[in-house]
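Hi everyone,

Forwarding the result from last night's run.
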Amino acid sequence: MTISYSDTRKKLDQITTEMLELIRKYDLDAASPFDVIEVARTKITDQNDYIRFLELSLEGRIYGEYGDALQKQIDEEAKSHAAKTIN
């Protein structure tokens, strides 16, 4: 299955929106990215919301890394195309 860069960005936007809702709902205010899971574990009282928070974290990581790799591929293809055009 291949997902376009545009679809990847849309999915990341959806994940971000849902994550922000949970952050606001539970006032998640971690001092650093390394504290996020501990703060969430402490402050999120609904088990389903905590599980969803973890799912969103993982999905965001996966889609983020995929998007970065896809962007790198797009940039390399554009560079290659430009080099061929110049020569």
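The chain has a mean pLDDT of 92.

Cheers,
N.
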